[in-house]
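Appendix B. Raw example, untouched.
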Amino acid sequence: MNSNNENAPCPDDADTTGSDDPQWLEACRREEAIRELLGRSAGDRLRTSDVEDVALDLGISRATLYRLVAIYRETPTVEALQPKPRGRSKGALALDKSRHKLIRQTIREVYLKPQRPTLTHLVEQIHLRFVQHGWPLPDRRTIKTRVDDIERRLVARKRKDKRAIKATTPVPGEYKASRPLEVVQIDHTLVDLIVVHEETREPLARPWLTLAIDVFTRMITGFHLSMDPPSRLSVSLCVLHGVYDKTAWLQEREIDATWPVAGLPEAFHVDNGADFRSKAFIRGCRNEGVDIIWRPPGEPHYGGHIERLIGTMMGQMHLLPGTSFGNPIERGSYDPKKNSAMSLRELECFLGWEIAGGYHDRIHSTLMRSPLAVWREHEARINLRMPHDRMAFWVSLLPEAYRTLRPDGVWLHGLPYWSNVLSADLGGAKRELLVKYDPRDISRIFVQRPSGRFVEARSRDLTCPSISLREWKLRRRETRAQARAEREPNQWITTAKAKRRIVDDAIRKTAQARRDPQPKNKISVDDEGFGSLKGIDSRTPSILEIAEKQRDR
């Protein structure tokens, strides 16, 4: 029994066209008729009678049929034979060249500007120019069609629309890593929160946050929170926080969570800011064999991992009192300064909990696992590399100053520092010594000896607390302000006038005496009354006077 049913008739209700579009159905009918016509012909010549019969069946002229046959011979598909819609083709210009040119010129001069004028403003300007030429006004849809025909990327660039530029810019690449600590990305952000003074609880300003993330595991390697704008210092302190063990840091802030990330990465991936181009940062990384990879200019998507992390952290800030939110629309009538309640130190503890106890343990949308679980999985195979000389690496990234070694120590920030080791260098050659300091803790500094090695020097004031440089400067300003407030407000003016009057009188008297050289009797100082104790009661008080004074007290 023959099972081949290729030539079997189709059921009456079977759809052999693949569509119910009238134009498609007509194209199928034309294709079938032309295919049969070409099958009956011998070579390229068609019999006139056959052409007339097929044209009559299709309801078209012979010229149209000949044209369709030529098209089919070149492109033997059904689509090539679809009837063209009547009327003006899409994109055809209904206006003459002069009016079309005027519309395009007005769009370029009025609409494609950084001020981003509206379409209504553009229509008004085009109508005004058409009136000046005495032409009939074009319809708004005609103008909108011309605007829509311009490339969106060109419109976004001319109007300096960052959101539109981002939406029309392809971002095919991103940085990827194959192992932990292969690539660590670092970046800064202005925190969406206003912090308060530690003691007065008065609102201050929004702090800056520097974050570092491991690209492979998405673990945060370290962070630094400061009231100062991004700088070489904030980068260095973030790097130091990420490289060293954080157990003591967590215990000091009473954070009951694990943060196992430590060690030097193979490379830092950063943007092209001046803070990442500093000599200290480059030299410190180069000395320890850490590469620095700068993002391609104008390609922010290559730092997508750290950008998304910043967005995640700012989402947590929006839940705290004193948040400024992401923009004024979200903020609404909420007053961040009035509602601010967290100090910088409290915010740092909050971030420590959020990172070590929250973010690391949450399931990451890309990893489909928690960052901590991915780190634990590869932890045994991580080639943990610490700085060769911990002290040298530590101080290489710290800010520096030059000071002279004095008998009472090294003075920095208005404080004296001393180490017994410096005693041997006191009588040496007179020169300034390189001093490194940690602005987070001014109770100690690091002084470079003539041998090149650093020694730790402590504050001579043993009661000096481990406070930050910013806190110390703030306290000094407050002390000075208090001292100025305790002074008599106008006493210095009265004193200055009196001293000026005495000097002026002395000059006048001396000049007058020199103009009148007549000899005068020598007058002793005591005779003038200034050498004696006039006005001063120099008598020895009697016993009764002493008793009366004691009784009055």
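End of appendix B.
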